[in-house]
TrEMBL record:
One of its GO terms (molecular function) is hexosyltransferase activity. It comes from Klebsiella pneumoniae. Residues 1-104 form the Glycosyltransferase 2-like domain. The keyword Coiled coil applies. Keywords: Coiled coil, Transferase. It comes from the Bacteria. This is Glycosyltransferase family 2 protein.
Amino acid sequence: DHSSDNTLDILKEIASSDERIRIIDNAVNIGAGISRNIGLSEAEGEYIIFLDDDDYVDTNMLKHMSDFAELSGADIVVCRSRSFNLQSLQYAPMPDSIRKDLLPEKAVFSPGDIERDFFRAFIWWPWDKLFRREFIIQHSLSYQDLRTSNDLFFVCASMLSAEKVTILDEILIAHTINRKTSLSSTRSVSYHCALDALVALRDFLFKNGMMQKRQRDFYNYIVVFLEWHLNTLSGEAFNKLFQDVKLFISSFDINNEDFYDEFILSAYRRIADMSAEEYLFSLKDRVLNELEDAQRNILTLQNEVEEIKQQLQQKDEMIASMNRENLAIKADNKILENYNEELKTVQTKFLKLLSSKD
């Protein structure tokens, strides 16, 4: 996508030794969404996957996923993933990328089999999902031209449209986090993209007659998703998005009973009832409360550690005392053994003496 570094040179070097690789070089930088659409239009294979430049892929990822797709006949195969923190250089699991507690207990399922909370069953990024290309073409699905959040609509609409979905229970990709130069770290520049993606998803649900079935799921998801985005912003970007989020949420006939838990209900009430200033004060209070809770938890853990240390010290002292007792018993046993030997000797002499008198 018209990279400013030497990415193109690296790609050309790799492609020179592998005829399967085809490079498409955009004349100008047009963003991930449109670039992915170009790749989709040029692709010829049976399956397609959209990978990010900064993620770490298992050597066998494509083979394992395509083999699994062939075996299951699935439109979409989802694999497990983990995160890689560029600052700490540590890997960590990502259990929420596939919420098995929300999925049906079947090897191959359809979206209709997901009974509740559909939009939180997966995370709507593309790089852990393999798509059957003909399925994407048949449903005329494409990415939005957005700076960020351009994958949400495409991936979510694809999942809603699929007839067969399956899970490959292998960790095959690591997603980079805490990369300071990534677009996701600069949301203030494109703060409205998240809302634009949800508007497109809302329209898709209505157009395809899916909103009635997924209405509660959608309400729960938009509250969680939008509050998370609001909490990553500050200043003018926050104020503008907050007002638009209030308008968007108020356009639905949402009731308190629509939410699956108190956490989401509380988030909804904060957005619906508070001003931008009140929301920020509320966020500050929540952060301070979480900090206080964390400090209390740390103190509790420290006390527990100290108590365990004392218990271990007591056990060590008990073990040392038992060892001393064992040594004393061994010494007493040795004395008894010597005494028994002497007694046997005396008995032998006594018997000999009696025998000689006879």
